[in-house]
Amino acid sequence: MRVLKPFDYFEPGTVKEAAQFLTTHGGKAQVLAGGIDLIPRMRIGKKEADYLVNIRKIPGLETIEASGANGLKFGAMATLHSLEASKAIQDDYPILYKAIHQISSVQAKNMGTAVGNICVATPASDVATALFALGAELTIEGVDGERKESIQKFCVDYGRTSLKENEIVTEVFLPRPPAGTGSAFMNLIRTHADIAKVSIAVAITVRDGVCEKVRIAVGAAAPTVFRAIKTEAALKGQKVTHEAINEAAETAAGETKPITDLRSTAEYRREMTGVLARRAMEKALQQVKA
Amino acid sequence: MTEKLSVVGKRVPRWRAHDKATGTAKFLADTKLPGMLEGKILFSPHAHAKILKIDTSKAEKLPGVEAVITWEDVPNKLFNPNKLDLILVHPELEFKDTYVLSEKARFVGDRIAAVAAVDAATAQEALELIEVEYEVLPAVFDPMEAMKPGAPKLHDFAENNISVHFDFPVAWGDAEAGFQEADIVVEETFRTAKNHICQFEPCTCMADFGADGRLRIWSPSQHAFLHRRKIAEIFDMPEGMIQWITPHVGGAFGKYGSLSIEPVCVALAKKAGRPIKLELSREEDLFATEPRQRYVSTGKIGLKKDGTITALQEKIIVDGGAYYTHNFSTTAVNMGGFLGLYRCPNVAAEATCVYSNVHPTGGVRGYGNHEGTCMLEQLVDKAADKLGMDPLDLRLKNAKKAGDPSSTGIPMETCSFEEMIKLGAEKIGWKEKRARKKEDGPKRYGIGIGIAMDVSGAQPFNIQHRNAFIKFNEDGSVNLLLNAADLGQNIIGAMAQIAAETLGLNYEDIHVVTGDTDSTLYDIGQHASGGCYQIGNAVINAAEKAKKQLLERAAKKLEAAPEDLEVREGHVYVISDPEKTISVGDVSREAMYNFEGEHLNISGQGSFSPVQNPPPLSAVFTEVEVDIETGEVKVLKILYVADPGRAINPATVEGQLEGAIAQSLGYVLTEEYVSNRETGALESDNLNTYKVPSTLDMPETEVVLYEEPVPSGPFGAKGIAQGAMIAVTPSIANAIYDAVGVFVTDMPATAERILEGLK
Hints:
The complex is a heterodimer. In chain A, about 35% of the residues lie in helices and about 25% in strands. Chain A has twelve helices and 14 strands. Chain A has helices at about 15-25, 40-45, 80-85, 85-90, 95-100, 105-110, 115-120, 125-135, 150-155, 230-235, 240-255, 265-290, and strands at about 10, 30, 50-55, 65, 70-75, 135-140, 145-150, 155, 160, 170-175, 180-190, 200-205, 210-220, 225. Chain A has a five-stranded antiparallel β-sheet with strand order 4-5-10-6-7. A four-stranded antiparallel β-sheet of chain A has the order 11-12-13-14. A three-stranded parallel β-sheet of chain A has the order 1-3-2, with helices on one face. In chain A, helix 5 (about 95-100) packs antiparallel against helix 8 (about 125-135). Chain B has three domains: about 15-25 and about 465-610, 2-Layer Sandwich (Aldehyde Oxidoreductase, domain 4); about 30-140 and about 200-290, Alpha-Beta Complex (Aldehyde Oxidoreductase, domain 3); about 405-455 and about 615-759, Aldehyde oxidase/xanthine dehydrogenase, molybdopterin binding domain (Aldehyde Oxidoreductase, domain 4, 2-Layer Sandwich). Chain B has 19 helices and 27 strands. The interface of A and B includes residues 1, 190, 262 and 275 of A.
């Protein structure tokens, strides 16, 4: 039995109000969205907060808005379940759907949000891995207005983002994948209800057998989720042959900086990044052909 | 057993299932006594340390704190939390080495002090105010290191940290000669997994000294009477001054075969003079209560070219941890399983029990037999490989039959391994699947088998003494009084079915009274799958005595001889003239309320002490798919053929077998108990890091009950629940071996280890 230490609770009605509160209380306040990471951490004393700022009551943050060719936006309070249930996401961003769908905890999906998950900045986030591969762009609001940032710039280091103490991520934008794009998400887990040992998300756009554009995101194999930039650069403009893919997979494995922990070993994570990257690319290419 | 059964063998709702399904069942976590305090335990942060000084004054001054205890406040008396020294034929092999609270910490998690306060948060805060000055001692975490001269010593009596070295007490033949005779010998060393059972309800206990001076303990023990006696010994009280109440149990699996936190709870209640509740967190339960015993074990099997086993030998290092608990008893059972499963003329085994500064282990589902049999069953497959034989044929060649001794040495009344193996092989398509192409891209297919025999109690090694009492109510229903904890195995429901069947009543007519040492008769408790077989016989005995009284009363009313009567669905009939009948209620009521003065509360006390120990039999078939690029094992299907004698409630038996399949999956594939190599602290100390499979990880399962009623069993029943993992575990390991040739010696066989094995 763990006991939460006492804290004050605040429910702002607008993002401005929330940002102002955060400005006043600085590091002593924590933003509460779904709370599935924050509350357990507070219980075990790994996170401290004198104030919790629940952004649930701010109107509009839970929306998911698909605008066809322009892409898709969803707000900070869109739950993992609502994203999973979105027809637009299932049809046009299937790797995000898949990354959420394979999460086994219904409770976590009903309470948890994708934005909350990104802000935790865990390297083992399947959802973030999919969002990296989809080229997600974040809208961040503070007292001085808003700014936009790509997800890979936002995730700075293990558990660390570019978010300032008085800022809130309010929205995520996903550009619509161009025609000729195939994608795949894969991970390795010990049991279904576990955090991934390694996860991979790939989105590849092919024209006339040549890779026009590719994003390869790797989770749980470095201090942050990361894009395998060297691998992507090597593939771009190349014919997507088996040889090219095998080579790319090896390059991707070389881009990891994994650790050994209770879930797996560094060696296994590195090697599996190669295996999964190859399999994911092959699967994505099959989609393009189909 | 030719008579028609009307209650036994039926899928009736299990006892208290409704309460549990609807959430109205009260567990200890839901229970509060008036004036109750909550306790917390201070666990040692050091693997090995002597306490130089403890200052509790700051903790005592914290508002809300009512009592603080250290080793100075508890009886200066050693005990063994394992109850077996009270009933074992060889009590000298069960060492007493544990104090309620210790002056010396021997592992990270050893109990140093405890606090009782108005609530758990205050008690927790007070723990942080206890100032302990430790002299940190060198520690040793590996049994091999611990045995070396000069290694840090844990207990004064144990030279080189060896508590005991013993040979299998009832070996037979000449193992050396047997290996000489053999054409091939296979020998392997295994490191079994120290897994934690992760019962739903973390350890919880309440204790209260009443105004009458009697101590009441509420705890989900498997052995209320034996644990009551342990507490009486530790606290120097007469047994009768203690009432032990067993509430709903949130899972036990052998864990509550030991005292857990009860002694600390009692010591707190004594000091505070108030009722105490002590409830561990999941993390505390994982790092401070007993997981499964770990063995470093070398097994050797010798065979003739035709597959006949000529010799078996086992050498075990018991990695028992900081305290002795079940070291001897699980190991002896391990040997029994390893040496006794097959026909073999020459056997020997020896074991060395070793202390080290790691978490002490206990007896968990399978109780040694799981590890011993698993090792043997894997060796059999390796031997089959070497001989070029089908492992199924090798098993059939050496399988025991009725009349052969079981693993306890007692001749078996029934034993149909051969039929069960053939039935399972037919159902799963063994021959075809064993022969079929094993590749599909990176996937490799495999099929494996494991067989096992377990026990129906611990005859002839322990005292096995059971009692039951039956009394009739005015309406013809009965109260069945017994002391059996429902650990999930539905023992209570099964006993009610047996009582109803024997008495000629309906299942609903049996109202069970249990879980209270004051109102039930003595029982040794729930262990070794002995409940159904042994208590079931006591219940039949009680029911027959009560029925005799019932029929004598009814005979007068019906003007017939008692032997000419029968009872069916709550009515007594004259067999030759069923028109002549009277309800059981009328007979019972009349016996209580009449003006003739011949009063009687129809009742019967039944006892049972076994002579036999019929083993439940298992033959399990597992299909797997192994990914040779990732090392991942996917279990596709498990077919479980079980002989429970008679399934008193088939739904319960199936549930026990399916639950065991889930536990074996975790044991073989994912559950890894990891301690820090430098500090000895448990790192896998929550369910995020220690990975227990869930329903999502379950393969397709099929359970086939091969019921062969055993003459000495109640309606032919044997035990079933404890032994249900034993054949599953090796069948998975053998399927992996068939798929990719990786012989798993270190459990769990994680993807990382399989991949390593493939290189």
